[in-house]
Amino acid sequence: xxTRAAVANRLVALCGQRGWTVHKxxxxxxxxxxxxxxxxxxxxKNPGVVTIKMLCDGLGITLEEFFSGEEFTGLEQExx
Length: 80
What we know:
60% of the residues lie in helices and 0% in strands. The longest helix has 16 residues, at 3-18. The model has no long low-confidence stretch (mean pLDDT 94). The protein is globular, with a radius of gyration of 12 Å. The chain has helices at residues 3-18, 22-29, 33-40, 49-59, 63-67. By secondary structure, it is mainly α. It is built from five helices and no strands.
C-alpha cells in the first residue's frame, strides 16, 4: 500500500467509527467536500499536511493519532 492509499483508508476507517459521511467530515473539518472526495477516491495524489490537519481537527484527533493507525505500519518506500 502506498501513502496516498493509507491516508484514504485511515479517513474511511475514522469516518466509519463515527458513522460519518464524506459530507459530515467535510463540514466538521471546514474542508470542501470535493477535496475530501478527491482524497478518498484517489484523485488527489499528494494531499497537503494542512488539509490532513484540518481533517484531524474535524475528527477531534491529533496528527500523531491519525498517523498511528495500522495503515501506516510498514508502508512501501515512495522513492524507487
